[in-house]
Amino acid sequence: MAAILLEVCVDSLHGIAAALAGGADRIELCAALDLGGLTPGADLLRLAAACPLPVVARIRPRAGDFCFDAVEVQRMLNAIDAVAHAGLQGVSLGATLRDGRLDQPTLARLLARAHDHRLACTLHRAIDISPDLAQATRTAIDLGFTRILTSGGAPEVSQGIDGLLRCFDAAAGRIAIMPGAGIDAANIGRLRAKLPLSEVHASCSAPALSPTRGAIGATSTTCAAKVAALVKALA
């Protein structure tokens, strides 16, 4: 049986180090994971370029929905250029219409720029608001995406098995389907029994302990031990 690849999403240099130490296979680099993941800044892109693992950078100019205006699309195009200039291997992006269907013209522009730079392209969880996951999967194939990150249209993968199976069926081996959202060492066995997994996505995060008294707001950080536990469970 082929090994199942693990992609870990991180938003800091510490996260990169923890994912590497835990044995991850690929990194999705973001800013502000607490907001769902935004485009990382230039400094983090530059630091990530030294990582020995493949790194895919999130392209998302703001939190909220995935309906982007012309200014935001230009920011995304510029961000793709910055990712390529930094020497990373891919991008993760998505865009939708108001009804949840994929915004094909916008995505075609973004993918054309990424492909000009020879960057691999992941369709991120913007697909999860689609009214028809199977059709969205076929659209992603036609657009030229490399893989789809999805929870099957549910808040977490464990609740989205039926949707994920629709994605796998529509993909028919033509695109990688990468389940993500709530995956950890405790539940990966159940998911493996129900889904034809080849790669998965996880945050492997734990609450961060702040050394500063009176710090306000809860934070989390990538945990190397959780990465290692998931790697072991995937073996």
Short note summarizing the structure:
By secondary structure, the chain is an alpha/beta fold. The chain contains 8 helices and 10 strands.
Description:
- The protein is an alpha/beta fold and 235 residues long.
- It has a single domain, classed as TIM Barrel.
- It is 37% helix and 17% strand.
- The protein is built from eight helices and ten strands.
- The chain has helices spanning 13-22, 42-48, 70-86, 104-116, 133-143, 161-171, 188-194, 224-234; strands at 5-10, 26-29, 55-58, 90-93, 120-123, 147-150, 176-179, 199-202, 205-207, 220-222.
- The strands form two sheets. An eight-stranded parallel sheet has the order 7-6-5-4-3-2-1-8, with helices on one face.
- Helix 1 (13-22) runs parallel beside helix 8 and helix 3 (70-86) packs parallel to helix 4 (104-116).
- The longest helix is centred in the N-terminal third of the chain and has 17 residues, at 70-86.
- The N and C termini lie close together (10 Å).
- The model has no long low-confidence stretch (mean pLDDT 94).
Give the overall pLDDT as a whole number: 94
For the termini, the CA-CA separation is 10 Å
What structural class is derived from the secondary structure elements? alpha/beta
CATH class, anyone? Alpha Beta
With strands numbered from the N-terminus, the spatial order across the biggest sheet is 7-6-5-4-3-2-1-8
What percent of residues are in strands? 15-25%
Radius of gyration, rounded?
Answer: 17 Å
